[in-house]
Amino acid sequence: MDAEQARQVDATLRRLGIPGVVAPVDPENPAGAWRVYDSADPATREDTTADALASVVAKFREISPEPPEKRHQGPTRGFVFPPADD
């Protein structure tokens, strides 16, 4: 993820109460890729991006366990009659 996506992920994690520190993979290059870590210290941190994303999915499943229903817009099968040429 880039810096803008990282800002959005950080806000979402905070809103949902999911722990994690969103930081660039290379602390010297904030324009590069970003990940979610267990701590801010680049020397000791561990990547927890997959766990954080799984926690976000779990939170949303708690809110709505069933997937949204697809809305049918008109018939799914039928016949097409060409216009009558008189």
Brief digest:
This protein is an alpha+beta fold and 86 residues long. It has helices at 3-16, 49-63; strands at 21-24, 34-37.
Structure, described:
It is built from two helices and two strands. The protein has 86 residues and is of the alpha+beta class. It has a two-stranded antiparallel ribbon with strand order 1-2. The longest helix is centred in the middle third of the chain and has 15 residues.
Keywords, separated by commas or semicolons:
2 strands, two-stranded antiparallel ribbon, alpha+beta, 34% helix, 2 helices, 86 residues
Describe the strand arrangement of the main beta sheet, using strand numbers: 1-2
Give the uncertain stretches in residue-range form.
none
Structural class by SSE content? alpha+beta
Secondary structure tally, helices:
2
Major β-sheet profile = 2 strands, antiparallel
> Cα distance, first to last residue?
62 Å
Average pLDDT rating: 86
Radius of gyration, whole Å: 23 Å
Per the principal axes of the C-alpha atoms, what is the gross shape?
elongated
List the helices and strands and how they pair.
Elements: H1 3-16, E1 21-24, E2 34-37, H2 49-63
Antiparallel strand pairs: 1-2
